[in-house]
Here is the input.
Amino acid sequence: MILDLIKKRRAVFPVQYNSQPITDEVISKVLEAANWAPTHRRTEPWRFKVLKGDSKKRLGKFLSDKYQETEERPKTVKVKKLRDNPQRAAAVILICMQRDPNKSVPEWEEIAATAMAVQNMWLMCAELGVGSYWSSPSLIEHIGDFTELSEGEKCLGLFYMGYYDEELPSGLRQPVEEKVEWLD
Ligand SMILES: Cc1cc2nc3c(=O)[nH]c(=O)nc-3n(C[C@H](O)[C@H](O)[C@H](O)COP(=O)(O)O)c2cc1C
Here is the structure.
């Protein structure tokens, strides 16, 4: 049942990944799931850049260099984490949103549609036994210095992917009843 998969999906972080590679076929399946997200006026605003191999190393170097450049007192632990995380992942996908040039829907709807695409990816990963999570460091505002973005394209985060060995914890949520008002 889909609810079981929704509840089973966890954020799985790079420290939890093992060294098993992910095939392009699996990555393509995850991207295909993304592509079926709902989209107002069919703007299909989600854009992805798949980083494997050396490009992950370059991303790690870019993030840690940029952090040291922009931070007054950079923390050594964070410098190392930013550098190492992309390499720990089997793949990192840059999550981008392409603003429709006709502005046929408000920007928030384009961001919402892209977030729905990411949920599809995350669920697909959960079903395939691939660990993943959406990372949104403030440094992504500089990602245009790492790779070229089109006019009106924004990076909303990094989607880390990797296989893992440990059993995942069950998730934590407050009861939905606390967030719902039923009106007659
Ligand atoms: C838009 C978005 C951005 C996120 N950014 C980060 C992040 O930068 N760092 C992080 O540790 N987790 C990030 N997460 C993942 C959440 O921490 C994670 O989903 C949350 O802890 C709940 O855990 P669960 O997804 O396993 O239930 C992000 C999630 C979303 C939806």
In short: The helical segments are 2-8, 24-34, 54-70, 76-88, 107-128. The two ends are 30 Å apart (CA to CA). The first strand starts at residue 46 and ends at 51.
